[in-house]
Design a protein that fits this description.
With 69 residues, the protein is of the alpha+beta class. It is built from 1 helix and 3 strands; from the N terminus they run E-E-E-H.
Length: 69
């Protein structure tokens, strides 16, 4: 079992959810619901892993909130 961190955003115009795994080329997808997005993301990552161990281009650290006056 592998764990990958994904960034999830929602398009304000369409309401569609979009996700990508930072540093993992090709690991991105979209869905109408969060459940659909999760299923699609699992599927695309599984397909990419069939080609072997990914060589991640960056390391996901986390998110940071910046306060601006």
């Amino acid at each position: 079992m592998r764990n990958f961190s994904a960034v999830i955003e929602r398009c304000p115009d369409t309401g569609t959810y979009v996700a990508y795994v930072p540093g993992f080329p090709g690991a991105h997808t979209q869905g109408a619901t969060l459940d659909e997005l999760d299923q699609n993301l699992r599927e695309v990552i599984s397909m990419l892993l069939e080609d072997g161990e990914p060589r991640l281009q960056t390391e996901f650290i986390g998110v940071h909130t910046v306060a601006v006056a």
